[in-house]
Amino acid sequence: MHQDAELIARCQRADASAFDAIVARYKTKIYHYLYRMTGNAEDADDLTQEVFIRMYTNIGKFRAEASLSTWLFRIAGNLAVDRFRRTKNSRRLVTSLDAPIQVGEEEASRDVPDMSMAPEVLVGRRELADHIESALAKLPAKLRSAVILFDVEGMSYDEIAGVEGIPLGTVKSRIFNARVALRDSLRPYLETE
Amino acid sequence: METKLITCPNAEQTIVGYIDGNLSTDDRISFERHMASCQVCRTIERELRMTQTLLRTLPSVEPRQDFEARLAARIADVKLKPSPWWMRVWLPSYVKPARRRHVAIPVVAVASVVASLGFVYVSRVPTVKTGAVQTAAASDETAVLSELANQHHAASATQSLGDTSGVVVVASDMATGGSW
Ligand SMILES: [Zn+2]
């Protein structure tokens, strides 16, 4: 946080290396969030770039007391929602072939004599990820964003409230409703007692 | 110690808080006591916890290796448009600065570049005012503008400026503002 404030101040004094540092620091988090929001690498990439362009063009308006993370994720969330509105039924959630580097599978694809890396296990894992992704895609954007920020990005309720501009109680309701909807979509994958 | 009674219809925030470890000790104990006698809450808690576990199995993803290079190109493109002063005085360090020639370009030439950029700008983004920018630019920023002009010519030679559809120009409410 403190470091962010310093980077922003340096950016506002036209220190280009501070801008680089912010990009380096946040690009993967923002990309990951947008990938889960849009369901595809191409939109996630494009919108992540857009987030930093907007930061660049608006840096003069940024208030020192605000959180950079909150600001960036808020821009990202707005862009994702806007993108949905424009491309309603286009190629959302086609993730299989053009998926970007998937860290887990990157390792998995190496020649390791380990049964957890057996082809059928990998196919199962890919299939599960596909199901989770399409379950996420069915959620309204507000619910999707809340649950992704919490469970995937590891934000606190307070941080999510800041990003979405909503009260804490609403954050909890959205996370609850998101999980209920995901549970219904993913029921075949839930272990029974 | 006060024991809060949790009724199922009001339990959603409690269940979420419980799963995420965000309840006070008192609330946690109360809810565990409630679950001991409530099959409904017990089932919901278990299923939602498993759902959360599934969600967390999603693999990490990373942006492409050339992310910075492409970002730099897009920012350079944005810079070709009339813009707030802070956009014109600096670029990220990975954007290669254009040849700095602080030779003043004749005012007419500068004005025509500004005008043509302004025209392109207006035609793409009808809501943005360019008048103030042009007026300010005409006065004391000839050096910056000459660099702008150089970049414009350099960029025209090597890349298409046509596709700027995704590129911004500040929609400040989107960038800074409101919840959705
Ligand atoms: Zn109950």
CATH architecture of the largest domain in chain A: Orthogonal Bundle
The portion of residues assigned to helices of chain B is 55-70%
Structural class of chain B: mainly alpha
Shape of chain B: elongated
Which spans of chain A have pLDDT < 50 for at least 5 consecutive residues? Answer: 89-113
Ligand inventory reads:
zinc ion
Largest sheet of chain A: none
Taken together, the total number of domains of chain B comes to: 2
Enumerate how many helices of chain A there are, as a single number: 9
What is the CATH domain class of the largest domain in chain A? Mainly Alpha
In oligomeric terms, what are we looking at? heterodimer
Instruction: State the helix count of chain B.
Output: 9
Indicate the CATH topology of the largest domain in chain A. Answer: Rna Polymerase Sigma Factor, Chain: A
Separation of the first and last Cα atoms of chain A = 43 Å
Query: Secondary-structure element sequence of chain B?
Result: HHHHHHHHH
User: Count of DSSP E strands of chain A?
Assistant: 0
Instruction: Give the low-pLDDT segments of chain B.
Output: 96-178
Count the beta strands of chain B.
Answer: 0
Task: Bin the helical content of chain A.
Answer: 55-70%
Question: How would you describe the overall organization of this protein?
Answer:
The complex is a heterodimer of chains A (193) and B (180). Chain A is mostly helical. Chain A folds into 2 domains: 2-87, RNA polymerase sigma factor, region 2, helix turn helix motif (Rna Polymerase Sigma Factor, Chain: A); 116-192, Orthogonal Bundle (Arc Repressor Mutant, subunit A), CATH 1.10.10.10. Helices cover 70% and strands 0% of the residues of chain A. Chain A has 9 helices and no strands. Chain A is globular and about 55 Å long. The N and C termini of chain A lie far apart (43 Å). The relative contact order of chain A is 0.11. Residues 89-113 of chain A have low confidence and may be disordered. Chain B is an all-alpha fold and 180 residues long. Chain B folds into 2 domains: 11-55, no CATH class; 74-157. Helices cover 59% and strands 0% of the residues of chain B. Chain B is built from 9 helices and no strands. Chain B has helices at residues 12-19, 25-37, 39-55, 67-79, 85-89, 107-124, 131-140, 142-158, 172-176. In chain B, helix 2 (25-37) crosses helix 3 and helix 6 (107-124) crosses helix 8 (142-158). The longest helix of chain B has 18 residues, at 107-124. The radius of gyration of chain B is 29 Å and the shape is elongated. At the A-B interface, helix 2, helix 3, helix 4, helix 5 and helix 6 of A face helix 1, helix 3, helix 4, helix 5 and helix 9 of B. Bound molecules: zinc ion. Zinc ion binds at residues 8, 11, 34, 38, 40-41 of chain B.
